[in-house]
């Protein structure tokens, strides 16, 4: 007799955010949560974030599938130390028999087995999302644009066809682009910008981030920006204009609001161009059909949709893989915002049947 399927929580332990997706026994989304978790400031922030999540979800019989990128934070001496610390933290909070750790090609492992394979566990969250996509779509490119990074992952014939696995390999292969829609410093997008009829060099200072850009373009979801702004000031359009102005050695009063909006649009285009070039290089391998779609995920998937249009390809949303809707606030995160967390929960659920 088959074992009854259980409720699973998928956990994505990031360096700045904790993301959790709850799936019922039929694989439908029950809840999607994203909590600020500045892990570089200490593991106690993870403990607090976990308790916030559990307080929101309530007490129910649950199993836990875990993936991570938080081992990269400079809290840890190296990645292996970070992986072991994060596994230990989850074991401290939940019984080991209720926890499975995602280890890429090795699948979901018991905590002890995962601790013996930190190199497979480290930053494998992208593969969980791509593996789930490969099970349900014939081929395509997963484009997961988050707050800090963008994953470009090809898949076909039920398999992930990425050339890299670890972060260094993926950076070299163009499958990991360290550019996101919230936390990326504006100085990383361009060396100079057009302003007032001149090309003006950007200051190499952390005065503004991409959150300021997309707040001015009107595309940034409110729930996506949970960390403090670059200067600690409010997250308003006026304050974002002020931060962008500082990148040019100006105050916001030096130009009309339309000028700062125009600058934001230029910088958004620069970021999109970087992603399009990375995707063009990936597609030049000739491994995917000309009509293979773009599968968009992450809080920046509005850029993935724009990327698909630029490449002349169909666009699909990662949320199509899940039935049901989160009962949370209408302006809260969706499944596609937390794709790796949803993916590990779904993979665990399918393996437990």
Work out the radius of gyration.
20 Å
Largest pleated sheet: 6 strands, mixed
What portion of the residues fall into strands of 2 or more residues? 15-25%
Mean pLDDT rating: 94
**Overall spatial form:** globular
Total beta strands: 14
Q: What is the CATH top level name of the domain at 8-137 and 323-351?
A: Alpha Beta
Uncertain runs with pLDDT below 50, 5 residues or more? none
Output the CATH homologous superfamily of the domain at 8-137 and 323-351: ATPase, nucleotide binding domain
Question: What strand order characterises the main sheet?
Answer: 3-2-1-4-5-6
What would your notes on this structure say?
The chain is α/β, with parallel strands linked by helices and 353 residues long. Among the domains are: 8-137 and 323-351, 2-Layer Sandwich (Nucleotidyltransferase, domain 5); 186-273, conserved archaeal protein q6m145 (Nucleotidyltransferase, domain 5, 2-Layer Sandwich). The chain is 36% helix and 19% strand. The protein has helices at 44-57, 79-93, 111-115, 118-121, 125-136, 167-173, 210-216, 237-247, 257-283, 301-311, 339-351, and strands spanning 8-13, 17-23, 29-36, 63-68, 99-102, 108-109, 139-145, 150-156, 159-160, 176-177, 192-195, 198-201, 294-297, 315-317. The strands form three sheets. It has a six-stranded mixed β-sheet with strand order 3-2-1-4-5-6. Strands 7, 8, 9, 10, 13 and 14 form a six-stranded mixed β-sheet that branches.
